[in-house]
Amino acid sequence: MLLWDSEQIDAHNAGRPVPPPPTNDSEDDLLDRNEAAELAGVAPRTWDRYANLPGIQPRPQPIDVAGTEHWRRGDILTWLAGRPGPGTSPGRPTGSRETTPRANIRARTAELLQHEPAITAAHVAAELGITPDTAQRHLTQARTNAVSKLLRANPYLTALDIQTRLGYPLWAAERALTTAHTNTRKTGRGTGEKAAHPEPANTREKKTGPEPADTREKAAGPETMKDPGKKG
Known about the structure:
By secondary structure, the chain is mainly alpha-helical. The protein has eleven helices and three strands; from the N terminus they run H-E-H-H-E-E-H-H-H-H-H-H-H-H.
């Protein structure tokens, strides 16, 4: 992995031989896009979005090195430490009860997802002190809700559109999009309520219409006439 420090940059700009990279990590190391994303624990595309993603602190400003953006390792580490995302909570101790009130889990999960689009259920569980199963359920719902909101404005969005707009991993965008579409088909309007379909008029007439005359006649039959010439 190629790392640039200030000594290497000075040598490069002066046309001198560039010294080899140091063997130990330093806060002055300059990381390229892929290296910065790896340090942040996200995909390179998500790292790009962190430049102006609403609701989160922007990533550190890059440093131009021979026309290529780089970031100081120390700036990235400081930025990560100041974020309210995963890693700031000791998590749920083994054998203990969930520490976040159930009424708050949905809102807190949505908040974490907004700050960290690529967050995992394990990180949500550690951050909120809840079980992994509970974290996975609420994280899936939070992603679906966010996608459903976008679909109400544009129902033709693709998984790639969702990934670009929300920063989710592609697999998560595909799953949330599929679930959102399924929910919309079930409810008819995508509001969580079943669509009310009026009963066809001809069905109502069949149920409530008058009984046909010939049916009544067949059921009752003509009255039997007695022969006056015959005795009872």
